[in-house]
Amino acid sequence: MHKLEHEFENETIEDYEVSSPKLYKVLLLNDDYSSMDFVIKVLMSIFHHSFEKATDIMLSVHERGSGLCGIYTHEIAETKVAHVRKMAKNEKFPLRAIMEEE
Fold it and tell me: pLDDT confidence of 79, banded at 50, 70, 90?
């Protein structure tokens, strides 16, 4: 028997604590220049929301100052924020997305 096998032979799966990865909210922030159509386009293309859901989130951004796009693991949230930044820059809008720990 290898030493490694011997060390684990009396342990059960309950002996290991499995923790879920931290999750992050991705939020769009309101500004005075990004068009409502552009915000909906971002929500549909980057976050894969339906037109109806994208419209609801866009209205939340407009009326409350921010809107929840989704909740993701750190890497995915970071990628979504970067995609919003790139898309906004390409279309010359100041739209910003941020991520906050859940």
Answer: very high
